[in-house]
Design goal:
The protein has 158 residues and is mainly beta. The protein is built from 2 helices and 8 strands. The protein has one domain: Lipocalin (Beta Barrel). It has an 8-stranded antiparallel beta barrel with strand order 1-2-3-4-5-6-7-8. A hairpin with a 2-residue loop joins β2 and β3. It starts with a helix and ends in a 6-residue tail after the last strand. About 14% of the residues have low confidence.
């Protein structure tokens, strides 16, 4: 009986320590690559990279997926200030988010299509596979809309 119990515990130990584990905390992070999905058409519009710098999140457009008739290399011609007339690919359009209770809040997001900057908050959902991006203006309460982005796992080239 003791040998059987010892064998079972040893087997469990080996399985738990040798089997590749999913990094749950990493999956629930907004860091990484995301496919943006238009909340109206439900089509994938771009690929975005989100990273952390000095404790705050930033996001940049890595690729765009234009629909037929759309510019394959769009320019942010309606954007304000330093963003004006910049290529959308490579544009750092999200900034300033900090973490509070598992959500990323008080950030800003630029909509390259209309050139407006909105307040924004991020929430990772669906076991880390979706990112709810809530862009809003604040009058007395928050008025805005949410897009749900999909996690993208680029192929490793290592």
């Amino acid at each position: 009986m003791k040998k059987t119990l010892l064998f079972v515990f040893l087997l469990l130990f080996l399985i738990l320590n040798c089997y590749p584990k999913a990094d749950i905390t990493n999956d629930m992070s907004p860091l990484g690559y995301w496919k943006t999905v238009d909340d109206k058409t439900k089509k994938v519009k771009s690929l975005v990279k989100i990273w952390q710098e000095n404790g705050k999140l930033k996001g940049r457009v890595e690729e765009v997926y234009p629909q037929p008739g759309e510019d394959p290399d769009p320019i942010c011609d309606k954007c304000p200030g330093e963003f004006k007339d910049k290529r959308v690919v490579g544009l750092e359009f999200m900034w300033g988010f900090f973490e509070e209770d598992g959500n990323w809040i008080k950030g800003k997001i630029l909509d390259p299509e209309n050139g407006k900057v909105y307040n924004c908050q991020l929430e990772v959902t669906d076991n880390g596979q979706k990112l709810d991006v809530f862009g809003y203006i604040k009058v007395i309460f928050k008025i805005g809309r949410t897009q749900t982005w999909l996690r993208h796992h680029p192929l490793k080239t290592e």
